[in-house]
Specification:
This protein is of the alpha/beta class. It contains six helices and seven strands, in the order αβαβαβαβαβαββ.
Amino acid sequence: FGLSMAYRPTEFTQVNAGVNRVLVKRAVDMLDPQPGERVGDLFCGLGNFTLPIAARGARVVGMEGSPGLVQRAVDNAAANGLAANASFIAYDLYTDAPGAMAKLGPVDKLLIDPPRDGALEICKALPDAGAPHRIVYVSCSPGTLARDAGLLVNVKGYTLEAAGVVNMFPHTGHVESIALFTRK
């Protein structure tokens, strides 16, 4: 995407930059953001997915619990000339998922990239009416992705369209998982 992402040693970023580029491209391609769409990026960190989505012309709102990472994401958006398409909200997505979804507002599409604990409460808080019609869920824990996928499919009415893994952590038992959910 031709983007530059600044970060400090104490801030979270993916440890494998080359594989991260593959993961981001795959996730953005699956999400398929279009100019004029409003997209949410939950657990956005420093803008790893937010800025590539904005670069595709969508208006994207990143939400992250760490105010420091949100500031870094704001700075990264400005440094890459994407501040007009990318905005950010500092909000604890774990303690008040319904409040987070209300603060995010309606979105056409949603990218979720939570820590290992997953995003069960966020998935529960998705609105029944006006829910995003496309969700890309990126996870470093296949178990929590499977749990949350069960709720998205069996309760929220989404269809699992595609899923796969990316070997972000070679020579370990850990992988990044990615799944695409759609809803008519």
